[in-house]
Inverse folding.
């Protein structure tokens, strides 16, 4: 396979941006080559220039889907960004719980969930606090654009390397079974999460509104206009008094007028102008 060259890389970048809004940075040439090599071998495509030519023709949708999924960054782990996740599973969920105590209904969306570690981390959090959430109707929806990542997420099977990234040993032994060297999530964990394919550039109206949305470490890969577009769709999917969680290195500041920094929880966001009882604005 010949090395990828500038114009070929740009065409691949344009395809990825058109389909997902994500950008390919110049320093990711090597990663793109490595990701596409198995697909080219599978389809007997001799080199990258031929692959780009086929994709540019627009007629090979399944091949395009495979390539797009291969170029997407699916980096994730359990309880990712532990300090922020602890704030989420402690004070943030406690606040939402207080606001929903009359209905005892909680809807959470894990957007761009990759292979499922994030929504399963949420499920484990609720299972670890049965008395607090007894009698509640808790719905965790998890979506991703990648059908292959979702297939893995639904199975809930993780390698030794994946399972030990962020997951304490006691929780691993409690909520996962070892199967042929891998670790499989137990039924009580898997049944708490509903997975579905979804492109963040598409409307999420069919999902209804959520009390909490997690969209972490995805916006950083989008170009500015697509970032604004996704944030607008997230705003429409969030309840008026709901909470948005982004990645630790992400912000809505300067990106959209649909969200503002949470008045109570540093690093979290709410819909602009949301009137949430009991909150006080803090410095950001």
């Amino acid at each position: 396979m010949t090395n990828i060259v500038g114009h070929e890389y740009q065409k691949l970048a344009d395809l990825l941006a058109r389909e997902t809004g994500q950008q390919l940075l110049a320093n990711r040439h090597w990663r793109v080559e490595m990701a596409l090599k198995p697909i080219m071998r599978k389809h007997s495509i001799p080199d990258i220039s031929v692959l780009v030519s086929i994709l540019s023709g627009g007629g090979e949708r399944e091949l395009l889907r495979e390539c797009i999924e291969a170029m997407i960054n699916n980096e994730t782990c359990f309880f990712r960004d532990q300090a922020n996740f602890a704030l989420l599973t402690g004070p943030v969920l406690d606040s939402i719980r207080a606001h929903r105590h009359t209905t005892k209904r909680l809807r959470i969306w894990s957007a761009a969930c990759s292979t499922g570690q994030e929504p399963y981390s949420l499920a484990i959090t609720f299972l670890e606090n049965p008395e607090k959430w007894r009698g509640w109707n808790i719905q965790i929806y998890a979506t991703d654009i990648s059908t292959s990542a979702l297939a893995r997420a639904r199975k809930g099977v993780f390698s030794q390397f994946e399972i030990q990234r962020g997951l304490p040993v006691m929780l691993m032994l409690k909520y996962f079974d070892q199967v042929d060297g891998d670790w499989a999530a137990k039924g009580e964990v898997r049944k708490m999460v509903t997975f579905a394919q979804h492109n963040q550039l598409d409307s999420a109206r069919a999902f209804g509104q959520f009390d909490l949305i997690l969209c972490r470490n995805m916006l950083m890969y989008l170009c500015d206009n697509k970032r604004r577009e996704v944030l607008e769709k997230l705003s429409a999917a969030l309840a008026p008094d709901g909470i948005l969680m982004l990645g630790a290195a992400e912000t809505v500041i300067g990106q959209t007028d649909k969200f503002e920094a949470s008045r109570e929880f540093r690093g979290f966001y709410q819909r602009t102008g949301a009137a949430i009882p009991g909150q006080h604005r803090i410095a950001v």
